[in-house]
TrEMBL record:
Cellular component GO terms held in the UniProt record: mitochondrial inner membrane; proton-transporting ATP synthase complex
UniProt name for this protein: ATP synthase F(0) complex subunit e, mitochondrial
Domain of life: Eukaryota
Compartments where located: Mitochondrion inner membrane
Amino acid sequence: MVPPVAVSPLIKTARYSALIAGIIYGKQRYEYLKPLGVEDKRIAEEEKKALEEKIRIAKEIEANQESILK
């Protein structure tokens, strides 16, 4: 097994500082994007409901037309 290599305290500090900065940035970015995602999901759900309603109405019209012709 290879013995561990001595790493400069400056390099260790820089690496951990970058790690902590990345974690903080990620948390802030997530908090910024979270409400936008919720809004997108709400809009998509409304569009889905509207599409399902249109399909249901189209099926009802088609069923009524078939019953008239028979």
